[in-house]
Every structure is written in structure tokens, then in C-alpha cells.
Amino acid sequence: MSQKSTRSKVELFRKEFITHARKASGNFVTVADRERIARQFLDYLKNKGIKLRQMDSLKAKYIERYIAERKANHVNHPAK
Predict the structure, then answer these.
(1) Rounded Cα gap, residues 80 and 75, in angstroms
(2) Which end of the chain is more exposed for a tag (fewer CB within 10 A), N or C?
């Protein structure tokens, strides 16, 4: 009998999101930067109380708000 995972759907979404960032093509530095930005975006969603459970639930407005907040905070490039 199969066991159910103890991970929540939100945690599974986070893992899947990071996996998509890693799987896109590019050299090591590009992939690492993309993964770091994806983690920052996921942290933004978490801090705003947005709990996504599926990739289909991701909306353009979330990304637009994330970019607007970064611009408002005068962050033009990702932190290293």
C-alpha cells in the first residue's frame, strides 16, 4: 500500500517551482541565478500570504506585483 506524503501541497508547489527554474536551459551561473530569483519570488509570495498549490494557480498579477515591489525598493538587480 502506498504511503501518503507528509508534505503539504504548498511545499510541493515550492519544490516544483524550483525544479522548473533548474530545468530551463543555460549555463551553471544562469541556472543558479534563476533558482535564486525563484526562491526570492516564493519568499515574496509567502510573506504576502499567498499560498499556491498548483502551477496553474500562478497568476501574472503575482509576478507583476513582485516586480513592482522590487522597483519600489530600488532593487534593480538580484542580490548576490
Answers:
(1) 12
(2) N
